[in-house]
Specification:
This protein is an alpha/beta fold. Strand 3 and strand 4 form a beta hairpin. It contains ten helices and 14 strands.
Length: about 350
């Protein structure tokens, strides 16, 4: 593209997160100043969204001239196609877990560690949605007093599993409210309507933690650049359509009063303080809502708080778009430009 305009691709444009990515691009004016190209599966090819025709992501796809590619199409697609986009000259911002553990791939929350972008080699990873909102709330506390240990319990909405999970929740709720038998569960091991499932994610290779829990443990340390933080996580699925909630217990290294913690959170970019945050209040918003900040009476350096955010927006799409904005603003869209900077 000529001048400062960029050619931005959205891969997985018809999915739950891809649709929100397009909305965020519109809201932030990036669709006005840049060319937007849409890719999805063969099944979705030909659909027209905002006057743009969705292209099939296949061996005939033209990847030339793409500056930034926002990926939200699953780990398998990312592993196969992200390197191809990078080889064609694009910088990929990937929303899957495919590259988060790669030490050469920055794992970035826009408000927390944007400096990590200058180390990119064409690939940038978006954190897990639950980790994302947690980091926005914890970063100012970690910088001030250090974090010795975290205990986090999540209350994760079904939209984190995708559109079919939302449809399943709606169908099950209609049946229950209509006095009909619940349909057989298709997405989760048990019905989710009017239920709580005490393990969000999947158990891998006999691990007693789910992959969602392991993601939060690893990603917290990588983003905060501190491998010594102790992290204990329990991820739970709840019958909420959109927005994840987290009960967070923090043990700081240095004393930190509740009053000072509230000051830090009030000044932190992307944080909104509320008495009692709720998923409905967070839905459709880009901010991370933090409340119930209080002293943990069981530990002299203990704090507790409740953190809520829209998992489709800040937890996924918004952060990817914010990263794209930072790349453009700082002139480090290409890997060569980042290395030079």
């Amino acid at each position: 593209m000529s001048g400062s305009a960029q050619r931005i691709a959205v891969v997985g444009a018809t999915g739950a997160v891809g649709t929100v990515m397009l909305q965020c691009l519109r809201e932030r004016g990036l669709d006005r100043d840049n060319e937007i190209v849409l890719f999805a599966t063969e099944r979705s090819a030909g659909r027209v969204i905002d006057g743009r025709t969705v292209q099939a992501l296949n061996d005939s796809a033209d990847l030339s001239g793409i500056d930034i590619a926002l990926f939200s199409a699953g780990g398998g697609t990312s592993k196969l196609w992200a390197p191809r986009f990078v080889a064609a000259g694009a910088t990929v911002i990937d929303n899957s877990s495919a590259f988060r553990r790669d030490p050469d791939v920055p794992l970035v929350v826009a408000e927390v560690n944007p400096h990590a972008l200058r180390a990119h080699h064409g690939l940038i990873a978006n954190p897990n949605c639950s980790t994302m909102q947690l980091m926005v709330a914890l970063a100012p506390i970690h910088r001030e007093a250090g974090i010795e240990r975290l205990v986090v319990s999540t209350y994760q909405s079904v939209s984190g599993t995708g559109q079919r999970a939302l449809e399943a929740l709606d169908a099950e709720a209609r049946a229950a409210l209509g006095g009909e038998p619940l349909p057989a569960p298709e997405i989760y091991p048990e019905n989710i309507a009017f239920n709580v499932i005490g393990a969000a994610g999947n158990f891998v290779d006999g691990d007693d933690h789910t992959d969602e829990e392991r993601k939060m443990m690893f990603e917290t340390r990588k983003i905060l650049e501190d491998q010594s933080i102790g992290v204990a996580v329990t991820c739970v699925r709840v019958p909420v359509r959109i927005s994840h909630s987290e009960a967070v217990n923090i043990e700081t290294r240095e004393p930190l009063s509740v009053e000072r913690a509230l000051e830090l959170l009030a000044q932190a970019p992307g944080v909104v303080l509320q008495d009692v945050p709720t998923p409905l209040r967070a839905e459709g918003r880009d901010e991370v809502f933090v409340g119930r900040v209080r002293r943990d009476p069981s530990h002299p350096r203990g704090l507790a708080m409740f953190v809520v955010a829209d998992n489709l927006r800040k937890g996924a799409a918004t952060n990817a778009v914010q990263i794209a904005q930072l790349l453009i603003r700082d002139g480090i869209v290409s890997a060569a430009a980042a290395a030079g900077a």
